[in-house]
What we know:
Blueprint: E1 2-7, H1 12-20, E2 28-34, H2 40-47, E3 52-54, H3 64-78, E4 82-85, H4 94-99, E5 104-108, H5 120-126, E6 131-138, E7 148-155, H6 162-185, E8 192-194
Parallel strand pairs: 1-2, 1-4, 2-3, 4-5, 7-8
Antiparallel strand pairs: 5-6, 6-7
Helix pairs in contact: 1-6, 5-6
GO molecular function: phosphoribosylglycinamide formyltransferase activity
Active site: 108
Function: Catalyzes the transfer of a formyl group from 10-formyltetrahydrofolate to 5-phospho-ribosyl-glycinamide (GAR), producing 5-phospho-ribosyl-N-formylglycinamide (FGAR) and tetrahydrofolate.
Amino acid sequence: MRVAILISGGGSNMTALADSMTGDHPARPVLVLSNRPDAGGLARADARGIPTAAVDHRPYKGDRAAFEAALHDTLCAAQPDLICLAGFMRVLTEGFVARWQGRMINIHPSLLPKYRGLDTHARALEAGDTEAGCTVHEVTPALDDGPILGQARVPVRAGDTPDSLAARVLEAEHRLYPAVLRRLAEGDRKRLDLPQR
Length: 197
């Protein structure tokens, strides 16, 4: 399975995914693509020998169709079987998602369907939740609403701040995303639920 990974920042989830695709793993990273040419994750991918590219969204000045056409063309050149969104901070249009329907997954830092969108950790703390976590799901036109492929849970601790909870959830993301990717690469689409850690 050929995997393209889309990022916008440092690429910690990209690194976890890429580092998992070794040995007998049935998938290989064929492209790390960012909407930010200065994204730190591009250097991390390059250091691992993974081809990289950037399609900067800023010159498109809000023309999402033109930006996504360039993104699509860059992806097509790499011929991925699966696209993993890993901290890609652009909301994709329905048209783009439709082109890659069933072949694009995302990791989200909450236990969906709770807390779609941003500020998930602050919202979990404000609600008094006793656990938080992350979700890998198929990407559909509705934001953070596709079929759930896996979840990992972490405890919310007394004295947690959004930052401390985010750090704990990020560790869970680094366990969950590679595990779900491997299952998908092996042809298994059953939901994976990792125990609380």
